[in-house]
Structures are given as C-alpha cells and as structure tokens.
C-alpha cells in the first residue's frame, strides 16, 4: 500500500486543473475554469456554511420554529398544562356523573333493592318556656 507523504498531499491540493465546458454540437468552449483541489474544497465549505446559516436564520427568525417539537414559549407550555389539568378534571367529573346517573336508573328500574331504615328515631321533646 502506498503511503501518502504530507508534502505530496499539500502539493496535490495546490495543483491546478482546468474545467472546460464545451458546446456538444460545435465543440466550442463555452466556459473555462482554472481550479485547484484547495479552491474547490473552500468553495464547497463556504456553500455548506452559508446553507446551514440560512437554514438556521430561517428557523430562528420566522414562525417555523413553533413547528419544532419542544421549541415553544413558556407561556404556551404553561397554558397547555393548565388545559390538560382542566380536561382531566372534567373527564373525572363526567365519569362520576355517568356512574351516578346509572345508579339512579338502576334504582328507579328496580334492579337494586334498597334497604330501608325502619328503626324509630326518638326525637327529644323541647319544652317551650313562656316568659
């Protein structure tokens, strides 16, 4: 296996290449570029950095940031929690009311016999004083 020397690697980065774009019908040179590997690397790196920067700016400076999960204001998350608690308590209340109505229906229809309290209550007699 061939070892790459650091000196040859840097030389290859500086070597000049020619990129020629030609018209296929007339073989006329339309555009000619003189490039090196280093210039291509720098150009591609610049394009990638600009693309990432523009994407970040688009997300930060526009309402698109609210579509990212977990990226919301504290006010919205607080309101969401309050609505969740309210919904949970309303669901519980509806469940209790449904159970109550079902038990009333079963008592009225006679499905459940009620035990009646037939013990007599001894009510103390209060004497009225005539003053």
Mind sketching the topology for me?
Blueprint: H1 6-14, E1 16-22, E2 29-36, H2 37-61, H3 74-109
Antiparallel strand pairs: 1-2
Protein name: Peptidase M23
Keywords: Membrane, Transmembrane, Transmembrane helix
Transmembrane segments: 40-61
Walk me through this protein's architecture:
The protein has 131 residues and is mainly alpha-helical. The chain has two domains: 1-67, no CATH class; 73-109. Helix content is 53%, strand content 11%. It has a two-stranded antiparallel ribbon. Strand 1 (16-22) and strand 2 (29-36) form a beta hairpin. The model has no long low-confidence stretch (mean pLDDT 86).
| Percent strand | 5-15%
Q: What is the arithmetic mean of pLDDT?
A: 86
Point out poorly predicted stretches.
none
**How would you characterize the largest beta sheet?**
2 strands, antiparallel
* Number of DSSP E strands: 2
Count of individual domains = 2
Q: What characteristic shape results from the CA principal axes?
A: rod-shaped
Organism: Paraflavisolibacter caeni
Protein name: Peptidase M23
Keywords: Membrane, Transmembrane, Transmembrane helix
Summarize the structure.
With 131 residues, this protein is mainly alpha-helical. It has 2 domains: 1-67, no CATH class; 73-109. Helices cover 53% and strands 11% of the residues.
């Amino acid at each position: 296996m061939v070892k790459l020397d650091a000196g040859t690697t840097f030389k290859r980065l500086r070597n000049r290449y020619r990129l020629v774009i030609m018209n296929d019908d007339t073989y006329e040179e339309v555009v000619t570029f003189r490039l090196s590997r280093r210039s291509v690397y720098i150009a591609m790196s610049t394009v990638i950095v600009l693309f990432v920067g523009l994407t970040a700016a688009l997300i930060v400076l526009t309402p698109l940031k609210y579509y990212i999960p977990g990226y919301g204001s504290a006010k919205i998350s607080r309101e969401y929690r309050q609505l969740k608690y309210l919904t949970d308590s309303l669901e519980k209340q509806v469940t209790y009311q449904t159970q109550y109505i079902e038990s009333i229906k079963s008592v009225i229809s006679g499905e459940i016999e009620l035990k009646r309290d037939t013990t007599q209550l001894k009510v103390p007699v209060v004497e009225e004083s005539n003053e």
